[in-house]
Amino acid sequence: MLRRTCHRLRIVPFSELFEYCNVLTSVFSSPGERPCISVEVPGQPNQRFTYGDLQRDIVALANTISTQLDTAANGGDGDRRRSLGLQLPRSRQLKGVFHGDKDWVNAAEGRHFSHDVLVDDGTYNAAILCSPSYEYVVSMLAVWSLGLMAVPIAPSHHYEGEITHVLEHSASRLMIVERSILQTKLPPAYQTLLGAESNKKSDIAASTTTVPSTDATFCVNNVLDISNWMVDHRQKLFERKVNQGAMDEELQVDILPPEAAPRPAPKTSEEAIAAVQAAREEAKRIEEQKKEEQLFDEFRRSLKQTKSAKSSFVPPLTFDDARLDHELNAVFRGRYSELEQSKASPITSARFLINEQNDSLMIYTSGTTAKPKGVVHTHSSIDNQVDVLRRAWRWTAEDTILNTLPLHHVHGVVNVLLCALTSGAHCIMSPFDNATRIAHRLDQGDISLFMGVPTMYTKLIDAVSSFSPIEQTGWRGAVSQNIRLMVSGSAALPVPVLERFRAFSGHTLLERYGMTEVGMALSQPYNAQGRIPGTVGAPLPGVDTLLIGAKEDEAKTAGAKETAASPVLTNGALALRSKSLFDRYWRNPKATMGELVVDDATGLHYFASGDTVGQIPAPVLPSSSTKTTSLSPSAPHFQILGRTSVDIIKHKGYKLSALEIETALLQEPNAFTEVAVFGFPREDVDEEVVAVVALHSHLLKTLLPSFTIPKDDDTQQLSFAPSAVNDQLRKIGRHHLAHYKAPSRYIVVEKIPRNAMGKVNKKDLKKRVAA
Ligand code: MCA
Ligand code: AMP
């Protein structure tokens, strides 16, 4: 027993294995008993998980994935890391074009841009197709723990055209998928790729793990049913607990010296001396055994005391170096031994040690092209995003955030989930399915933080305004007292919405500005007094801004709201530089270079945001509040004046590509002959997705026999289709696009007007709708 105890003392914290990723290090350093993730979905039992649960589950899932990859790998090149589909450690000489400082960028030799060198063949990409859930979190962190890149896919997306684009383009080899999505959304081909572990209790026809990928599943050659895995894993944990319980009982039994067998009385003096000696030895043995037991009891007592201590501290999850062989997967084991070697001498050929410059997360975002682009972030850029926000918005382990955002965009993933996990805070996930339910969830007293898109605040205002006056007063009291910060972003927050929400909640929403490629770049100050409605504040620490084509005169014409208190200084196209910037667009060096802006004066590299902004002077704060704000008090504040391109639509916090929507609509056979999509301003959703369409005669005859198309007239205003027609056309759109991308309003025309060059002038179309 004592040997076992001593053995346990030779422990190595898991956090050491994950030095390249601050999120993992923090998760594995958090006290095991702290609440970490809760999931509250109407109609399902609430779930609550601690950091201890998360730590154990990450390690267990990483073990399963590594076994599956190992089994599925058919690489015979003798390089185990390659055959496992792991990422090579990133060379220090290889950086993203937006990352290098001036000296590095200008260095003639010894530096390479990642987009020029990296092959982007997808071998280490793991697609995660799960709704916001505990399973999602375990999957993402297990993927990171093995050094793979996580590629979250929106569960709300259609398989054809949307999910297929991400799978094909990312060339993901592994897919971690929620059972219901696997069964209802994906073609059966994926089920044949289920790994052995996921298959064990599956009622889906099992197959071998080495089925090669087919065109039907793109490069995916391994599927892990995370729902099934979780059930199986919980069962195993339960069984282990039962066995451990039995072992503990065994240990608790007082170990008494065995009953001495009656000894014959000594007959001679030699026998008498020997008997005395034996008795002395026996007494000594018992004494030593007692001491051992005492020591062991003390050790157990101290463990129990630490567990029940007020701080509820539980030693972080560790592994026992003598049991590496059967408790740890090949990657962790390899990394552990390389770390050990590196302590003795610098390693020359690290095989399992990736670094903070390695790829970690790929988020697909809409650009001005028809297909979304994969934005690759490194561990370092994600860590920087999290670090900056935690400081600016003062996250602590005492925080509890209610997350209602989807987890396939930076807003939900980084600003909410990763900030919470890195702070040791508690994240409650609940879908924004019903604004009244969410409003009531916010007033329970346990939530300290909330972040959402403006549409969510509009919906909350509508919900609370239908409460009785007494309920409204109660809601305001609860929300203003318990929630310390409410943040709005992803789209412009109209000032009337900000004011109405303040009247109902007592909160002046903090507005910030960010992009998938950049993370959060601008933020109003933490101190509410310093926030100017209608602006997004000043650059966050470490963010450097550049205004291209900055002009004073055009600021007003571009729509900047000038007041006596806030004269517009200048406006222009915003370019950004910071450590949070992405590494590259996946498999798209041309697009990566397309967003590069080099400042002639300094030679520094910036990212072209595609947003036009105005600048106004910072407010002068009272000295006490100036001290507490984490942002530079003298930095000018920014107003977002709009996207530079008409082909980007801002809708409910999403950035949508008009071209992607047009391409999808044209895919429906015999429906539309021409399509032009643009965003039309509507306060509650920012921009509504509007499609101007010319219809195919077949559609007219079959679906809309009694509809007469309005006659074209260049001067005439464009009118929305009657609701019955609109509903029919909307159905077609929704058949090809996720519900939030599908146009909500249609305008039917005989022919879409074009200029002499044959181009559609969308700005003109928009004006004719407004007229
Ligand atoms: C929804 N609908 C459905 C379904 N779900 N219809 C059929 N089947 C379904 N499963 C309907 C809705 O009722 C709605 O109808 C329409 O489809 C559009 O759906 P949705 O846009 O989801 O609207 P909603 O259900 O009203 O939800 C509003 C929402 C949501 C909660 C605000 O849009 C949302 O979660 N937005 C957040 C986006 C986000 O995270 N953005 C960050 C990316 P109808 O139209 O008739 O009402 S930007 C980013 O990350 C950068 C870095 C940044 O700065 O943050
Ligand atoms: P995405 O590329 O999907 O990450 O969306 C980023 C875009 O969202 C930015 O380029 C802006 O156009 C927009 N955006 C984010 N935050 C704000 C904000 N507070 N106000 C206006 N637009 C915003």
Automatic annotation (TrEMBL):
Residues 127-197, 355-586 form the AMP-dependent synthetase/ligase domain. Residues 269-296 form a coiled coil. One of its GO terms (biological process) is fatty acid metabolic process. Keywords: Coiled coil, Ligase. SUPFAM superfamilies: Acetyl-CoA synthetase-like (SSF56801). InterPro entries: AMP-bd_C, AMP-bd_C_sf, AMP-dep_synth/lig_dom, ANL_N_sf. GO terms for molecular function: medium-chain fatty acid-CoA ligase activity. Residues 660-759 form the AMP-binding enzyme C-terminal domain. Belongs to the ATP-dependent AMP-binding enzyme family. This is Long-chain-fatty-acid-CoA ligase, putative. It comes from Bodo saltans (Flagellated protozoan).
